[in-house]
Design a protein that fits this description.
The protein is an all-beta fold. It is built from no helices and eleven strands. It is elongated and about 50 Å long.
């Protein structure tokens, strides 16, 4: 589950926020399997989509994270969940997207890391209303 500014998000919803106001993020990973899972790393990466196949991830002048954009998840037991909180601060107006990826964080494996990517979250940063 992904919540942006307290609202549940999916790929069909555009969340609006104001430039200059921190936007709370909440990502909840629920383990529906019969076995414990982990360790994982959760990474959130903002980008702009230029609608021509190009994604701009070089946004350090437009967006900043309040806290970290990567979290370590040790183990999630069956039917339990793990919740991570953060915040984004938009410095300019525009349409932005947020990639949220979970990947295995176990260096003892000989296989490549596997990734679980959630649908991108669409966030529209707007000028503050006077």
């Amino acid at each position: 589950d992904i919540l942006v500014d307290g609202k549940v998000c999916d790929c069909d919803i555009v969340v609006t926020c104001q430039v200059g106001d921190p936007v709370p993020l909440q990502v909840k990973l629920t383990n529906w399997s019969k076995h414990s899972v982990g360790p994982f790393a959760l990474t959130m990466m903002p980008y702009q989509d230029y609608q021509n196949g190009v994604h701009n991830y070089d946004l350090q002048d437009a967006i900043t994270f309040v806290g970290s954009n990567t979290f370590h998840i040790d183990t999630v037991k069956p039917t339990k969940d793990s919740v991570y909180f953060g915040a984004l601060l938009f410095l300019y107006t525009g349409d932005f997207y947020l990639n949220i990826k979970f990947h295995e964080d176990n260096c003892s494996r000989e296989l490549p890391l596997s990734w679980l990517c959630l649908p991108s979250v669409h966030i529209r940063a707007m000028e503050p209303v006077a």
